[in-house]
Amino acid sequence: AADLDTMQKLGIVRVVNCTRGCPNFHPDQLAYLRLELADAGHQKISHCFDAVVSAIDCARAAGGACLVHCTAGISRSPALVIAYLMKTKRWSLAAALAHMQKCRPSVSPNPAFMAQLAAYEASLFARP
């Protein structure tokens, strides 16, 4: 998130920063969505899902990419990307999690985030 040259080479035009302490390093060059989330059981993240989907879609529509990051890339940011995959690709929670773990084996959203993702999955795939 700090290396502007690498981010530009990767085509990143937007950043979702879901940390509490990491600054938005390049606010003059990149669009940011700041979500100050804790990696803790009490943290609600489901209210952020639609904003993250919108941020990623906006970057893609502009022909670019969106970096979604937290501190370690294990729980917070993967949970948000899983929500994106569930919403846009219509993947189940299990499929989205498996894909993320294939790309990055250390991915492991905390149990509270998994519960919120399960509720999101139920709402996305509810039958009328």
List the helices and strands and how they pair.
Blueprint: H1 4-9, E1 12-17, E2 31-34, H2 49-61, E3 65-69, H3 76-89, H4 93-103, H5 111-124
Parallel strand pairs: 1-2, 1-3
Family: Belongs to the protein-tyrosine phosphatase family. Non-receptor class dual specificity subfamily.
GO biological process, one term: negative regulation of MAPK cascade
Protein name: protein-tyrosine-phosphatase
* N-to-C span: 42 Å
Order of secondary-structure elements: HEEHEHHH
Broad shape: globular
Write the CATH architecture name: Alpha-Beta Complex
Secondary structure category: alpha/beta
User: How helix-rich are the residues, as a percent range?
Assistant: 40-55%
Uncertain segments of ≥5 residues (pLDDT<50)?
Answer: none
**Largest sheet report:** 3 strands, parallel
Quaternary assembly = single chain
The count of DSSP E runs of length 2 or more, i.e. the number of strands, is: 3
Please state the average pLDDT score.
95
Q: Number of DSSP helices?
A: 5
InterPro entries: Dual-sp_phosphatase_cat-dom (IPR000340), Prot-tyrosine_phosphatase-like (IPR029021), Tyr_Pase_AS (IPR016130), Tyr_Pase_dom (IPR000387), TYR_PHOSPHATASE_DUAL_dom (IPR020422)
Enzyme class: hydrolase
Domain Tyrosine-protein phosphatase: 1-126
GO molecular function: protein tyrosine phosphatase activity
